[in-house]
Give the backbone structure.
Amino acid sequence: MIEDTIFNTEEKKERALTILRDGQLTPFWNLMVELLTGQIDVLKEQILEGGDDTTKKEMDHLRDKLRIYQDFIKTPQFHIDRFTTHKTEEPSLDPYETMPDKKTD
């Protein structure tokens, strides 16, 4: 898998994540998202309208294109989320852990 060579070291992973994050802020990416969002809207309309002369094969093709465009827009964020290390606190498994003291007045 290509991710095994791009994200196989901490340094490569950080570099790739920086490129993905920075890339989402470029005019090029914003234009691509705008263009694809327009195409997505058109495809959704075509799918909803359907029509008696639209074959199942044609409808499946429209749905496939819709899914591809949607996935393409989500691709950078998908990889950012996938390879970002979320440091979470380990839950305590101690059944006798003390609760905070309640002060009564």
